[in-house]
Structures are given as structure tokens and as C-alpha cells.
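User: Could you go from structure to sequence for me? I need the amino acid at each position, not a summary. C-alpha cells:
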């Protein structure tokens, strides 16, 4: 049997004085460099320290959010009627006039990442804390983007790119900006407001070079750039109304030593309630 793991809920759950990496470093020190774990009452992916000075919104930041305190979350999902088309100029001729409401449940799943490090890191609390906060948490952010876009292995999160009701468009030949604006308008055919885009960095930097970002910003569009979406795809949608991101009550950080190496694991519960899948459009460029 191995040595016991020091596992405790931190003294400052709101992290007003110390970051999550510092809390793990304290736990490791208390365990005399042995295995240790801490539980944090905040989602780890919201704690990446460079986010405040180098804004790069994740998929999480496109959405509104809530905390689930126990069990599945019941919510209302609305689906379009069969054969719904473009909106008319009267309410009864709009797609949403025929939306069908149904009760749905959202389950939480656990996302995690494990990062191997030299065991000597356990003897340098400051270095350990910085590595956790600057390198481990950002990896978990990447995993979160992947799960929110493609879904979780257990099926608890379907993934925004796989939604039943997601609309798809093929861009005509021409400038990407024209296709993006047409797709934004298409999002709003179901009564939503297009408020966000998810795209690959390659397309994002093309738009930067073309001087398009000020226009997108003026329209209130938040852009997430991530390698977790294909280079020729853009997800557009009414993220604030269409989905709610769900967090559990606690995240966890753990360090376990294996001879000359150690593994740092970051994990947290995550869920997604999909209210209006038809408020999302996947554009193929």
C-alpha cells in the first residue's frame, strides 16, 4: 500500500490570497514532498492568470454559466418545427412561433489533464505553483474547448459541433468576411442574436491581416480562436441564449510522485445545457 495522500479543502476557497498552484504547493509542502491534492471551489479553467492581461476568450467565455449543486439539471429545450423556413414579417410566420418546448436534463462529466514533471519540482514551491497556474491550467482549458465543441466520451456533453438541430452552411466563393456576415444573419433567422464566433487561429489571423476585427468588435461579436475546430470551419451562434455552461461545486489539483518523476492532475466537473440548438450555424469555408 502506498503512502496516504494529503487531501484537503483549502482554507481560502475563494482564492482571495493565493492561486490554485500556490494552494497545491502548500499541500505538497505539508506532505513533505509526497503525494498531495487540493479541492478548489471554483472552475480551474476560469483561473488561468494570463487571461486578464492577454485576452483570448475560450468557448466557456462565450456562454452564460451556472453551478450545479447536486444531480442532473432539468431545463427547457426548444426545437424547431419540421420544415421550418425563413422568417416572415409577422410573428406567426417566424420559426420560433412554431418551436416545440420539451423538458431536458443536463449531466455533469469530469474533464481532466495529467502532466508529467520532474519530482524535484516538489522541492521548489514557487516553481511548482507557477508551473501549475501557467502550464497545467492552460492545458485543461484546451481540453475544455475540445469537450465543449466535440463532446465528452461518456456522452454527457454532446458538443456544439454535433448538436441535433445545428444548421450548416457552405460559403460561396469570395472573401471570408462576406461569408461570415451572411452566416451571422442566418443565425438570427431563428430569432436569436449572433454574439460569438469560434474559429481556428489560421482564419483569425487572416481576419486580423485584412483589418476586419474592428467591424466584428463593433457588431458585438466575441471571437474564440482554438485549434480544436477545423481550419475551414466556423461556429457562429447566439451563445448566451442558446446554451448554459454548468460547473460543479469543486475542482481538484493533485500531485503524485513516482520515483524521479511526478504527475500533476487537474480535473473539474463540467456540463452543458442546450436550450436552442437551432441558434447555431456551422459555416464551411
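Assistant: Here is the amino acid at each position, in order:
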Amino acid at each position: 500500500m502506498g503512502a496516504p495522500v494529503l487531501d484537503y479543502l483549502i482554507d481560502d476557497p475563494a482564492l482571495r490570497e493565493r492561486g490554485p498552484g500556490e494552494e497545491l504547493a502548500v499541500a505538497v509542502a505539508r506532505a513533505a514532498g509526497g503525494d498531495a491534492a487540493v479541492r478548489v471551489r471554483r472552475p480551474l479553467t476560469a483561473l488561468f492568470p494570463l487571461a486578464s492581461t492577454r485576452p483570448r476568450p475560450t468557448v466557456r467565455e462565450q456562454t452564460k454559466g451556472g453551478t450545479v449543486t447536486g444531480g442532473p439539471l432539468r431545463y427547457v429545450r426548444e426545437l424547431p418545427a419540421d420544415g421550418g423556413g425563413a422568417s416572415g414579417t409577422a410573428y406567426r410566420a417566424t420559426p420560433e412561433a412554431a418551436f416545440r418546448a420539451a423538458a431536458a436534463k443536463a449531466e455533469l462529466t469530469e474533464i481532466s489533464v495529467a502532466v508529467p514533471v520532474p519530482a524535484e519540482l516538489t522541492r521548489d514551491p514557487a516553481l511548482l505553483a507557477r508551473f501549475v497556474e501557467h502550464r497545467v491550467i492552460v492545458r485543461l482549458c484546451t481540453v475544455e474547448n475540445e469537450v465543449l465543441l466535440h463532446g465528452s466520451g461518456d456522452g454527457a456533453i454532446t458538443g456544439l459541433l454535433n448538436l441535433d438541430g445545428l444548421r450548416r452552411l457552405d460559403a460561396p466563393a469570395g472573401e471570408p468576411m462576406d461569408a461570415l456576415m451572411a452566416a451571422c444573419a442566418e443565425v438570427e433567422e431563428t430569432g436569436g442574436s449572433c454574439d460569438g464566433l469560434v474559429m481556428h487561429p489560421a482564419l483569425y489571423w487572416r481576419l486580423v491581416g485584412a483589418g476586419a476585427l474592428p467591424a466584428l468588435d463593433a457588431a458585438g461579436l466575441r471571437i474564440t480562436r482554438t485549434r480544436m475546430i477545423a481550419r475551414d470551419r466556423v461556429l457562429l451562434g447566439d451563445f448566451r441564449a442558446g446554451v448554459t455552461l454548468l460547473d460543479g461545486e469543486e475542482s481538484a489539483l493533485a500531485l503524485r510522485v513516482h520515483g524521479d518523476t511526478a504527475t500533476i492532475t487537474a480535473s473539474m466537473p463540467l456540463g452543458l445545457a442546450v436550450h436552442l440548438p437551432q441558434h447555431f450555424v456551422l459555416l464551411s469555408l
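One structural detail worth keeping in mind: The longest strand covers residues 261-274.
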